[in-house]
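To fix ideas, we give here one paired sequence and structure record:
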Amino acid sequence: MQDILNERVKPWLNTRVTVIEGWMARGLLAPVDPQTFMFMIWAITQHYADFDAQIRALKGKRALTNKAFDAQTEEVVQLVIRACGAVSPNAPR
């Protein structure tokens, strides 16, 4: 597993870190540690993947419709974007 992390995941992460650093340099994103930012995004998305049954139960839903899934996805995206001081072009004005 360590080889996969070092040879595949780390280079992939580094490309994202470079993009995030570029956003910060252009003033599009509040100063954050890019790796921590990526870990937070992974944590959020992993939670939805791992705890889908719990989320559906707590929301009182058997399954999400495509429309509800898209709405929940947009809510999470907007939350992450606002938390790091950025503004999404999709955000309501």
User: Anything to note?
Assistant: The first helix runs from residue 2 to 25. Residues 2-83 form a domain with the Tetracycline Repressor; domain 2 fold (CATH 1.10.357.10).
